[in-house]
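B., you asked whether I could sanity-check this one before it goes into the benchmark set. Here's the sequence:
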Amino acid sequence: MADAFGDGLFSVFDDEQQTTTSKKIPAKAVGKNGTDKDAGPSARVKREADSDGGEEVVFGKKPRHEAVSANDLNLAEFMPQVKVEQVDTVEGCSHEVKKEYPFVLDPFQREAILCIDNNESVLVSAHTSAGKTVCAEYAIALALREKQRVIFTSPIKALSNQKYREMYEEFQDVGLMTGDVTINPTASCLVMTTEILRSMLYRGSEIMREVAWVVFDEIHYMRDAERGVVWEETIILLPDNVHYVFLSATIPNAKQFAEWICHLHKQVGCCTEHFFGDFREDNFNTAMQVLRDAGDSGSSSGGPSSVFKIVKMIMERNFQPVIIFSFSKKECEAYALQVSKLDFNRDDEKRLVEEVFNNAVDCLSDEDKKLPQVEHVLPLLKRGIGIHHGGLLPILKETIEILFSEGLLKALFATETFAMGINMPARTVLFTSARKFDGKNHRFITSGEYIQMSGRAGRRGMDDRGIVIFMVDEKMSPAVGKQLLKGSADPLNSAFHLTYNMVLNLLRVEEINPEYMLEKSFYQFQHYRALPGVVEKIKKYEEQYHSIEIPNEEGVVTYFKIRQQLAKLGKEIQEFIHKPKYCLPFLQPGRLVKVKNEDADFGWGVVVNFCKKTNVKVNSEPLYVVEVLVHCSKDSVKDAATEAAKPAAPGETGEMQVVPVMLHLLTSISSVRLYIPKDLRPFDNRQLLLKSIQEVQKRFPDGVPLLDPVDDMGIKDPALKKVIQKVEAFEHRMYSHPLHSDPNLESVYSLCEKKALIAADVRTAKRELKKARTVLQMDKLKCRKRVLRRLGFASPSDVIEVKGRVACEISSGDELLLTEMIFNGLFNDLTVEQATALLSCFVFQENASEMPKLTEQLAAPLRQMQECAKRIAKVSADAKLEVDEETYLNQFKPHLMDVVYAWANGATFAQICKMTDVFEGSIIRCMRRLEEVLRQMCSAAKAIGNTELENKFAEGITKIKRDIVFAASLYL
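And here's what the prediction gave me:
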């Protein structure tokens, strides 16, 4: 019976599969310091042998095919590698400590420090303000005591500046490297962005030879769709002898991440999770019932008056300081203005606020001090009210952070970005809404986002508890509320994707290649972890298959296959019947039709009308929508405006309702027609037709008669005739089969059917296993390499060319397009100001309300750039990459070209702010990113020896790097 449903059913793989191969090559003493490849094909991709004596992985040659069975798999490699142990710690210790704290450490902090003392990497997963930084500080103290270097990385420059100030006050021997600011680069402890560390690893910086510990702050940033890949690249590139401290928000799969680090670097790791909380469902339901009973009169939709009342109540009950989270910059400012009538500061606090503010803005010019944002914010701050969002001037944001940390602000209106980074807890957190716009849809915030923001409530050593207030309306269901408050945090899932900068850098260095990066990524590791489960699934299916015994199995299988063929042929006949040219003449009002979609079976309904719809797809056939009166559940009829119709459950009274149905969802067309009333709006008229349908079903107990495709519909297609002949032949075989008249037919047939379904499950699981063993994104890598070869960035043998070396210098903009523009001479004839303005298209990412009217001196270079981009999009599409030309071009936004051009020509900041509706803080962020791109363009021009172009980009930096746009951080 092994062959009943396919040959070799129980081997895990029938066919060969493509896998990456391992090939033993002589070990070579190399580090990961990124030496360039030789310029010949002999310099192939190599990787130093794993420390456990395993074989080296070589991807330079074409992978061979091999057959793999479940028994061949080394499942131990993919099983959980981290043992869960309870570590007993005590408040005191007998050994020499590297750092002392003036407070009693929490158990999770003591566990983490114990691991660090044992030179073990540690992942600390805890909510905001729980005290994770304590663990990082101890690792830094340990490294400094041992005369080793330590690197502290953070996701963004602003946070790096804050952390630098914190670390400098604690350890003194601290430096900062963020690209635009470098302070004391020879220090033992270096604070930097993750991108800087990645760049150092690719360039083989000597610093890395001396580094013993690397601290990754906010490691949950690794799931960021755009920048998360940088964290994975960096962790993979780091040497095995470096130890890590990962600080993360609460993540449910912390253990899985720890396993990846152990698997990647052959280290012993410790994972410490810290969280608490309970959900009082009875209280929540009571609160929601009050809202529902109150209806519109109890509006708690988060209107201005509600925010005003709640903030006032918080102050009256001494629950301040409070952080009020809103999910848009404009809302933040609007709510702050609503409460600006209130005053939370004493006179002495007002004087302190003014002194701090004046000292902060003292570095600005007199003209910049008169900017509306600067002038308008001080009266609010003196009242103890602050605003914090991405549209604020950076110097104001930092001033507000300092004032809040000193207790001089009692109410801070902030967007969710304030939930990330420096430790600034409050006693109370207020959410003005449970919904946010994520760039695509309006949705409820996730439980992970809630945990991160609500974690700000409660100050260590000051409050016995934190208070979180949620402004919701009656539209939030208890299920949504429970998921929000009790649901788990967002998992740390890999956002790994290939970038051209990554591929080119990996082709440039000798020890690691792009294929290795793919195989070792967290993305691939999470994929591999499914293997043991899939193998277990196959074994379970096999056991189920063998447990089913069928008498006279061979004969039963033959009969089963005949019935299966008849069912298949029946579907082919239905396809003919459902062709519009054949079925539309028979869809008269009153015709009985059967309606079924993937989720719901409505059974028989009555045709009311049909209409033709234009298909949005070019050169495609028109769509037909049939209006059918079907039996629906009362709930779906009531919510018809927002929910799709659902069939009435068996035994439910339900209600007949006219529902628009796509033509292909009509599974059967009956020869029966019913009389329908002219007006179907009255409920009784519709229900009368339900009784008529039920009468028809009683009259035909063997099934409602269907239209015959030949006799009734007159279809004369020769292909249909062949199908009908096949049906007749199979029916003859079925009726003459001895099993057809057997009294046990149904029981043995159902067993055979069950066994066939299990056989299909085995085949599906085998395909799943085959897919799970493959290296993901390998096809995308081949396509990207094809693009690089066709554009001249790499040779056919994957040796990097001059263009490729230039592109390696660019990571803050589209490296392919910028390199093509350099080699096409697009920048040669542009002035410094024009070139700078054009480069702004690569760094501005926000949505502006309207497109500026550009002068010809800016529009002409923009057109040239777009033509160049179109060529890259075409080459990418030809190389089988999913690239849409319009989408690719739209990512280069010229909305600030005129603003940057004016700024480069010496305009004041006040003048350029009047030219656009973009927030001041967003303009400054764009300018600072632009300076980073200009620095990289200088390096790119230098790489090809083009001094004139290098000087042009350098002059561009000089022209934009001035005044408030590049005012120094208050933390430095």
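One thing to flag: Confidence is low (pLDDT under 50) at residues 1-72, 274-279, 296-303. Otherwise nothing jumped out at me.
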